[in-house]
Amino acid sequence: MDIGKNSWERTWSAKLSLRIAIFILALLALLAAMFLAISYGAKELSISVIWTAVFQYDATLTSHQVIHELRLPRVIGAAVVGAAFAVAGALMQGVTRNPLADTGILGVNAGATFVVALCFAFAPNMPYLGLIGCSFAGAMISTIFIFAIGSRVPGGMTPLRLTISGSVVAAMLGAISTGIAIYYDLSQDLAFWFSGGVAGIKWLHLKLLVPIIIAALLLTFALSRTISLLSLGEEVAVNLGGRIKRARILAITAGVILAGVSVSAAGSISFVGLVIPHIVRKLIGVDYRGIIPLSAILGAILLVLADLAARMVNPPREFALSAMVALLGVPFFLYLARKEKRNL
Q1: pLDDT of 100-135, one tens digit each?
Q2: Is 314 helix (H, G, I), strand (E, B) or coil?
């Protein structure tokens, strides 16, 4: 057992300098992406204007108002939500050992969206904090339902069966949510959650959203070593001393929190949690002490750039953010599904 542990620790530290360089480059890329997203829009703004608007805000200047009240919370929101969806997907893939796992594909996002639709229909004046709680509850209920269905299938739960169960539940909840929107004449109000977007994120939302997501990310990082062991297989994890059951429950809970809270702010956005963890594993390996923080950074970059592209396709109109991400995610999913089928 000690030999296994020592070997595993050496694997983590062998290419530490390369990992540090990748993290630094990723952080610089994130800052560059956020700067571009703040700069470009219906009105292009110079570096000096952006700098003074951020650090010397003057409410009397229209350009400063555009940056401070519209673009800055939108870009920060896109980064935070992108990080949350990416880490949630990484957790699902690690805990279930399912390379196709993503909160959108597994139906977690659909559960959150379904409860949001119920809130709009029966409690239209609910405060945003209540909406966050309901969104998380919906994500948790759908997750429990999906795992229950997957484990009841003869032969036990496999990655492919879990993916199919999630897709079925997502389709069912999506259809019911659409029915609620039509019956209660909420199609316009719920269009944002169905298509996904960060245009509606304001500073008030971020004050509630950011602390919850940061707390969930810290929890996932604390669990990262055990999740790494889980991704190698339950028997390996037990032999190396991992606390399997508790870690699995906490990791799934953290992933559901990240997904549910993100859906309450940006709607249902799939494929971020599918694509990013696979890219990260190609860059730095399979240790979740590196996968979780780098997934957060790359997920933030992806959603910031996707939101920028959605704004720039046909200004001043905006392309649906979930559709923009899906342009990358769907081909990637089909590639992974085909690869997984060959491995069966």
Answers
A1: 888 888 889 999 999 999 998 998 888 988 989 999
A2: strand
Question: 86 near 260, Cβ under 8 Å?
Answer: no
The Cα–Cα gap between 247 and 259 comes to 18
Q: Residue 199 corresponds to which tokens in the numbers above?
A: 């245009």
Contact 216, 85 (CB under 8 A): no
- Residue 19, pLDDT > 70, answer yes
The pair of structure tokens assigned to 336 is: 């992974």
Residue 52 in tokens: 């003074």
Q: What is the dihedral of CA 140, 146, 147, 152, to 10 degrees?
A: 150
- What pLDDT sits at residue 154? 63
DSSP secondary structure letter of residue 66: I
pLDDT at 338 > cutoff 80: no
Could you state, in order of their start, the residue ranges of all structural domains in the chain? Answer: 2-343
Cα distances from 85 to residues 158, 195, 257, 306, in angstroms, run 23, 16, 10, 14
Question: Could you give the C-alpha distances from 252 to 21, 194, 269, in angstroms and in order?
Answer: 30, 24, 18
Share of the chain above pLDDT 70, in %: 87
Nearest alpha-carbon partner for 208 in 249, 256, 260 = 260
Whole-angstrom distance, CA of residue 17 vs CA of residue 9: 15
Instruction: State both tokens at 229.
Output: 């062991």
Q: Is the dihedral of CA 79, 84, 89, 90 positive or negative?
A: positive
Fold classification of 2-343 is: ABC transporter involved in vitamin B12 uptake, BtuC (1.10.3470)
DSSP for residue 58? -
For the chain, the straight-line distance linking the first and the last C-alpha, in angstroms and rounded, comes to 30
Residue type, position 66, single letter: V
CB neighbour list of residue 331: distance below 8 Å, 6 or more residues apart: none
pLDDT at position 240 is: 52
What does the alpha-carbon distance between residue 108 and residue 253 come to, in Å, rounded to a whole number? 11
